[in-house]
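Worked example 3 (structure in, sequence out).
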């Protein structure tokens, strides 16, 4: 199968992917959120959570694992604090809905926080940040999968957590700082991609069932191994602590988690939007962020590094390139989705350039 990459128009790609999910029964607004999440992930370079996972989403829709229609169940609403049951609806749509509500309320409350339990897969958390930061607000988003395991607690052997990503968007007068990290060195999806390609991790990122470090992703996927938390065997207590924090934010606060032994694909999300005007003032925060970003960029780079970056620099540059030149997609991704497209009479947009 070809590994070449071609570029596709953002506008045309969004339209055809949305139509594909609509044909599979997803309500229009939900299909739009899912398409935007997946395409934006590819635009920003988060290819593990881009259109490569669209066939899996389609399978989940077909099996009923992802619900195609419905609304959230409101568990609690105190104005600035909300708790929802996501009803296994698409995670991208659930987050978009939570952002809508938070943006409506944040100027009045200063901080709005929403937990979403029992949703479906969220995609790459970084894709939701620009919408918030461009309005001058700060955002914190975290998620976890209480029905899945793969990351062992530091000092342990058995997988207990998911990679538990934590993202933050910090506004500035220019590009925002966009943090999107996980408590484990890598993700399960990246491990699957490497294993399918016959490749290994670039370092000792996992351990086998006996606790020995390994660079073979198949040990994780086929032999009862687990991913190492950030810091590895040396400083893994730091990634472990982060995993516990994310579990508390997404499962503890939502009141639904591993203790309930859910099954299937389940994602719990924590979303918080903060208005700097409620604190030291928006201009003061933007000025402070600008100073800090300039200081990072001006820091003398170590040998082999062209310039010090801040989180989000590379992703936003890729996003601008994708807007101007097209979204880069490997032929293998197009090939994987083509049967579903053809089944609904849909055609891929022609590539913009090789």
């Amino acid at each position: 199968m070809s590994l070449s990459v071609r570029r596709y128009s953002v506008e045309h790609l969004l339209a055809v992917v949305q139509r594909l999910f609509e044909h599979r029964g997803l309500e229009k607004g939900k299909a739009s959120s899912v398409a935007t999440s997946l395409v934006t992930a590819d635009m920003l370079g988060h290819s593990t959570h881009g259109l490569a996972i669209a066939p899996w989403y389609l399978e989940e829709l077909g099996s009923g694992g992802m619900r195609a229609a419905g609304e959230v169940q409101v568990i609690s609403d105190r104005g600035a604090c909300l708790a929802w049951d996501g009803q296994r609806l698409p995670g991208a749509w659930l987050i978009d809905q939570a952002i809508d509500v938070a943006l409506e309320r944040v100027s009045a409350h200063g901080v709005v926080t929403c937990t979403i339990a029992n949703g479906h897969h969220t995609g790459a958390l970084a894709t939701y940040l620009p919408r918030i930061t461009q309005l001058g607000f700060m955002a914190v988003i975290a998620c976890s999968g209480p029905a899945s395991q793969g990351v062992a607690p530091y000092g342990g052997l058995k997988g207990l957590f998911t990679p538990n990503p934590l993202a933050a968007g910090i506004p500035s007068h220019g590009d925002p700082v966009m943090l999107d990290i996980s408590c484990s060195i890598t993700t399960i999806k990246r491990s699957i991609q490497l294993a399918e390609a016959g490749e290994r991790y670039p370092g000792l990122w996992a351990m086998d069932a006996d606790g020995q470090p390994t660079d073979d992703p198949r040990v994780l996927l086929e032999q009862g191994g687990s991913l190492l938390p950030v810091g590895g065997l040396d400083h893994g207590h730091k990634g472990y602590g982060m995993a516990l924090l994310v579990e508390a934010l997404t499962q503890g606060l939502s009141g639904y988690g591993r203790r309930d032994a859910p099954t299937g694909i389940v994602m719990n999300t924590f979303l918080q939007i903060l208005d700097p005007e409620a604190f030291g003032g928006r201009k003061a925060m933007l000025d402070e962020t600008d100073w800090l970003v300039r200081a990072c960029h001006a820091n003398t780079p170590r040998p082999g590094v062209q310039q010090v970056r801040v989180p989000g620099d590379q992703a936003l540059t890729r996003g601008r390139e994708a807007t101007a030149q097209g979204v880069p997609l490997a032929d293998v991704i197009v090939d994987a989705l083509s049967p579903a497209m053809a089944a609904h009479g849909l055609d891929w947009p022609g590539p913009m350039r090789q």
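Notes: The longest strand covers residues 111-119. The first helix runs from residue 10 to 23.
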